Amino acid sequence: MIENSLTTAHGAPVGDNQNSQTAGKYGPVLIQDVHLLEKLAHFNRERVPERVVHAKGAGAHGVFKVTNDLSAYTKADFLSEVGKETPVFTRFSTVAGELGSADTLRDPRGFAVKFYTEEGNYDIVGNNTPIFFIRDAIKFPDFIHTQKRDPRTHLKNSNAVWDFWSLSPESLHQVTILMSDRGIPATFRHMHGYGSHTFLWVNAQGEQVWVKYHFRTNQGVKNLHPDVATELAGINPDYHTEDLYNAIENGDAPSWTLHVQIIPFEEGLQMKDILFDVTKTVSQKQYPLIEVGVMTLNRNPENYFAEVEQATFSPGNFVPGIEASPDKLLQGRLFAYGDAHRYRVGANSAQLPINSPKATVQNNQRDGAMRFGHDTGHINYEPNSFNNVKEQAAARVSNYDIDGSIGNYSYDDNYYSQAGDLYRLLPEDEQKRLVKNIVDALGQVSYPEIQQRQLQHFYRADQNYGQAIADGLGLSITK
Q1: Which segments constitute the Catalase core domain (predicted)?
Q2: Residue 11 lies in a domain
Q3: What's the rounded Cα separation, in Å, for the pair 140 and 329?
Q4: In whole angstroms, what is the distance from residue 57 CA to residue 8 CA?
């Protein structure tokens, strides 16, 4: 083989990459030109299916360094000692936007972190908001349908968005955050991140506590005015992606300090607002933030497709010492994310370099499409009499009692208190911007009954809140 020779996918040298084989100078192209056929066929298959949600995003490599000893609360090895460093890969994204959409749309931002720990990969897959619109996975497909394109017109549909929200009052808290200044971050670097759900930490003695994750940006929180965001969407729809890349490329490595709220196990089960309701926050006065460590992003991807597009994150990727809570939305995500990856990237997506753990994998799974690194031994089952690859009792999940009758349950009907509290906490100028944003969006709805239904939710959260929006729309609130 001549050095630097262009080859086919199978390694054979290519003689002409400029001209197809034809029958004579003006003749038709020949099907025997296998190099041409290979190029065209591969080109048609160069993209995996777009993510249903979080399609548009950017990513970066970095490191997480522990700054506080929390081994009293979790036996997770990557958190075991101050100074311990773990490589990470982080992906930021919009939620509803497609691959070609603008970065500066009003939308929550995905905030996903993969920790390549010595005990396997651990993923925190959250958003830049501490809560979400719904609290049960059974509503997720319906919710996302309203955020995507209308199946008939193929246009975004404000009627569907507000119809769903008005019929799902648990969304009010998140809607308030979304329509506030925080709805359009200035950059990915200038926003906080959250695990959103409640998780369970278990220490070496088997003691359990509930935790909430908070990534606090060390760049400070900055947001965009809607007019500036709209202008940027036209001038540079990749504004956030470009900003993150350039910051890291220029040595201005962004960082976030990870904190947790720790809630005693039994205390968490007795809280007035159900701890597992992801539409609600947990008081930081009652359960203050405790520092864990610092995440710094210091290296850009070398290949966007290989490292960002093919990256797969799942809240079901746990390590010993960190477990799921009964949060119903989280429980649904434990299945849905892994299933999405198996469909979108393939059954062996965990073998791709960006997803492959640093820890040794021994799971007896063989074959399947795009499998590489095949095992050669006879043994692909457990238990067996021939090797020492065994289950580890120390890695078993912890136990706690549950009780109740099988049925379809809602957490509670307290949809309004935290949304009202948030509105009253905002400075007056931010309240005015919040109201204007809602008026501009809700004013696009063409059904008065949807507007009235949503107005009543705002009014129940705070009378001034609801009345200001009604005034902006030129409507009366039906009492």
Answers
A1: 7-390
A2: yes
A3: 8
A4: 32
Please state, in angstroms and rounded to a whole number, the distance separating the CA atoms of residues 363 and 373: 13
Active-site option among 127, 128, 317, 437: 127
Specify whether 36 is located in the same domain as 92: no
Strands 199-202 and 109-117: unpaired
CB atoms within 10 A of CB 407: 5
> Are 24 and 99 found together in one domain?
no
How does pLDDT run across 275-317, given as a tens digit for each residue?
999 999 999 999 999 999 999 999 999 999 999 999 999 999 9
Return the half-sphere exposure (C-beta side, CA atoms, 13 A cut-off) of residue 279: 26
- Determine whether 127 is an active site residue: yes
How far does CA 184 lie from the centroid of its chain?
Answer: 16
Question: What's the CA gap between 255 and 247, in Å, rounded?
Answer: 11
Give the mean pLDDT of the chain: 94
Structure tokens, 55: 């399609």
- Is there a single domain that holds both residue 299 and residue 262? yes
> Which of 274, 287, 349 minimizes the C-alpha distance to 48?
349
Which residues in 16-67 belong to E strands, given as ranges?
57-66
Three-state DSSP at 352 gives coil
pTM of the model: 0.94
Closest CA to 300 of 223, 238, 242, 215: 242
Give CA–CA dist 432/37, Å, rounded: 60
> Exactly one of 54, 61, 214, 457 is catalytic; which is it?
54
Angle at 141 between CA 197 and CA 274, to 5 degrees: 30
15 Cβ contact partners less than 8 Å away, ≥ 6 residues apart: none
Are residues 26 and 99 part of one domain?
no
Angstrom distance (rounded) from CA 118 to CA 401: 31
143 touches 344 (CB < 8 A):
no
Q: Is the peptide bond before 383 cis (omega within 30 degrees of 0)?
A: yes
Task: Report which secondary-structure segment, H or E, holds 268.
Answer: helix 265-269
Q: Are residues 62 and 42 in the same domain?
A: no
Residues belonging to the chain:
479
Count CB-CB contacts under 10 A for residue 57. Answer: 24
Name the residue among 283, 233, 280 with its Cα closest to residue 104.
233
d(CA 171, CA 433): 20
Query: How far is the C-alpha of 159 from the C-alpha of 166, rounded, in Å?
Result: 10
Q: Does residue 56 contact residue 95 with C-beta atoms inside 8 Å? A: no
User: What pLDDT score was predicted for residue 5?
Assistant: 87
Could you tell me the CATH number of the domain that includes residue 187? 2.40.180.10
3-class state of residue 38 by DSSP? helix
